[in-house]
Amino acid sequence: MGQHSEKDSRPAAGSQLNAQLEGWLSQAQSTAGPARAIIAPHAGYTYCGACAAHAYKQVDPSITRRVFILGPSHHVPLSRCALSPAEVYRTPLYDLRIDQKVYADLWKTGMFERMSLQTDEDEHSIEMHLPYTAKAMESHKDEFSIVPVLVGALSESKEQEYGKLLSKYLADPSNLFIISSDFCHWGQRFRYTYYDESQGEIYRSIEHLDKMGMGIIEQLDPISFSNYLKKYHNTICGRHPIGVLLNAVAELKKNGVDMNFSFLNYAQSSQCRNWSDSSGVSMKQSPLLTL
């Protein structure tokens, strides 16, 4: 338990990765910060590194002291949320320290389980955000900790429970929430081939479907988002982490804290034009801002 996890994110040597991240961030505009929460993709950086930069550009390292990273479980069936057994995550830039005090507080609620080290190492939904987190927080690297949370296939009522629990952390401006999610995964290998011919090419139909979902997320209404998913079954892999975030915002709204959310960029990993194509579509988004 006390040992470092071997969770290394090494798509390239540290210096090469650092240069890539700097390049992508330099192309993005800081238009909507400081972010309280971002949704950013976790596909390989080749596909979504430039897209994710628009979200990470809104992070203000001077006020952020804790970074919650909520990622979906891809490999292990999980009906609740799970915490890492590690104390530190290694990245090619520098090590990220897991906040053991927050972990202890979350553990006391009885709502979390412990993921195995193997599950932690196999899961990329959190891992892909570690180098970007390190880069965005580089100027204050000794002054923050991270809170990784693996989110299972939650029911709507569980999303509400976790949202309520995490809302007190979201209310604190020194906490940043990173929600890990790609959007539509389209094609026969994903068992999802929804196509609205009125939109033109398949990739345009996918974009229309995704942007409809993005517009609903911007309304910050968890029930509308659930209804959208029930109607279209869009393969948004981070739908449960997004649902938790929306419920946390809804809880704060009850207490008079108003926030807004806007998507800053949308990208597809490839443009599907026929039934044999497939695409993992990625997007990302801007902060929740207090008004």
Automatic annotation (TrEMBL):
> Can you tell me which family this protein belongs to?
Belongs to the MEMO1 family.
- Please give the Pfam families that the UniProt record associates with this protein: Memo
Q: Give the protein's recorded name.
A: Protein MEMO1
Species of origin: Labeo rohita
